[in-house]
Amino acid sequence: MTNEQLLTVFIVDDDDDIRSSLSRALSKRGYTVEAFSSARHFLKEYDHNKLGCIILDYGMPDMNGLELQRYMKEHSMILPVIFITGHGGIPESVQAIKQGAVDFLEKPFRQTTLVNCIDTAFSTVLETQQSAQGNKQLEAKLERLTNREKEVAEFIVLHPSSTSSKEVGRHLGISPRTVDHHRARVLEKMNMTSVTELVDQCVKAGLFSSD
C-alpha cells in the first residue's frame, strides 16, 4: 500500500447530487472517500488521525466553506483545502487562496483538474508528514547529547558566523581544545558530517530558536 492510499479525500457539500457524483468518480479512481452534507457534520465525525485533503463547497448554509477553512486553521487541522463553488468570484477565490487553499474551482470543472488538485494536496501532506518525522528523529538525537554538548551545539546554530573553537570557547568559558572535543561528539551523535549540516538541519527544524 502506497502512502497516497493511506490518505483520504473528504468531501463537504450540501448538494446531494454533487456529493454523490464526486464520491463515485473519485472512488473509481482509487481514492478513499468520505462525504459529509455540512461543515458541522464533518467537524462532528472527522477522525483527527486521518490525513488527506478536503473538497469544500464554498457557499454552504449555516457554516460556509471559508468559515470552516478558518476554523480548521485555528484548530491545527492539517487538511489542504480545495474549494468548489457554483457562484464564486474573484474576491472569494483570493481570500480562500490567501488562507492557504490549494485551488478554487468553479462548477462545472473537469474531473482531471480536480484530480490534479488532489494529487498536489496529497504531495503537500506527505512532505509535511515526512518533515515532522525528520524533526522528531532530530529531536531524539539531540536528547543523546550531554548538557555541555547541547550548549556547544546551540551556540553554533544560533551564531553560524562565529563557530571557531576560540569564539565558542570564549562564550562558554571553556578551552578551544574542549570545544573541539564536544563539537566532534555532537556531530557523531547527531550523525552529521559538518557544522554546516548541523546548522542547516537545526534551523529547518526550528531547534534552538532565538525567540
TrEMBL record:
Domain Response regulatory, residue spans: 8-122
Record key words, sorted: Coiled coil, DNA-binding, Phosphoprotein, Transcription, Transcription regulation, Two-component regulatory system
Coiled coil: 128-155
Domain of life according to the entry: Bacteria
Domain HTH luxR-type, chain residue ranges per copy: 138-206
GO MF annotation, one: DNA binding
4-aspartylphosphate sites (modified residues): D57
A Pfam family it matches: Response_reg
Biological process according to GO: phosphorelay signal transduction system; regulation of DNA-templated transcription
Record-linked InterPro entries: CheY-like_superfamily, Sig_transdc_resp-reg_C-effctor, Sig_transdc_resp-reg_receiver, Tscrpt_reg_LuxR_C, WH-like_DNA-bd_sf
Protein name, as recorded: DNA-binding response regulator
Organism annotation: Leucothrix arctica
